[in-house]
Model the fold of this input.
Amino acid sequence: MAKSKKITIGGYLSVNFTSSFLTIFLPLFFIGSLVFIIKISALTSSIHINFMEMIQLFSYNIPSILFYIIPVSFLVATVMTLLRLSTENELMALFALGTPAKSIMYRLLFIASLFSILLLIISLGLMPKTKQQFKLFKQQKASQAQVNINPSKLGQKFGNLFVYVKEKDGKTLKDVVIYNKDKDHSDQLFMAKSATINNHNALVTLTLNSGSGYTFGKDNLKEINYEQMQLFQTLSSKEFTYTNIIQYWTELSKTWRTGRILLFIYLSLIPIITLYIVASFSIINPRYQKNYAYQVLGVTTIGIYAVATLLEKSGTPITLLISIIFTFIIGVVLFRKNVQRLF
Done:
């Protein structure tokens, strides 16, 4: 005889919520990842990046992607879960069996708290660290990587010089043409059968072999032949100092970007402070109440991000605290009026 598997109300809500959350989260994560991959690929125009380095750079952006899509995914998943359970009369059955609406909310509030803790860790801990790693990686590549000169491509530059290469074999460039346009003096044109690029301590050397050069102006033309000629370019970069999390936020709080901290804290608490607002219009009796949940979801999302923007621009810790408490109280009041007094 088959044994029946018991499941608690909390477990039942968690299963339904997880299904709805993944339905929203995965497509948004894919879209966010695609945007950052396009952003990263733009770096290849100035520095050489292989596939593994692309993966490394993408991993530095994962915390940012998660931070901005998790709050939206949570809100939508909450609405979808509660609406589905309401329209299928499963919540009505629980209420009829004596389970109060506030008991359902306590379980969802626990889930929301876990999400907010995760978002706080991502925003205040991981994002500053990965942002610095991303910046450090770009600086190291700028000072250590080879200048990315590709064959048969126009408009490439070595310093102020325009470079055209017919073929490329490893580090060896073949049939090289270099043009230097000088507004104040004569223009220069250099050609070489081959050339090599070397980088030593951010000093890049382009060595031309077996070539000729021309310097020409309005009234004169000079020609030289050479066995070897070297051109130099210094890859300058600003000094970068890696700081720990506490130092990062301490230094940031001393600048005009103090509001950035307030923004991160407020957005991290979205699952908690908006849970009761969206639940107030998602827990309904489908026979007697109309569904306004998605309209409320849209207005709530716009309102929350509008407040977050204001906090970033001109917020203070006091206004942050007031915004959090005020938003949460609005949700509790709406929930008691629309749901708790009925169920």
Summary: The beta strands are 156-158, 161-169, 172-180, 187-200, 203-216, 221-234.
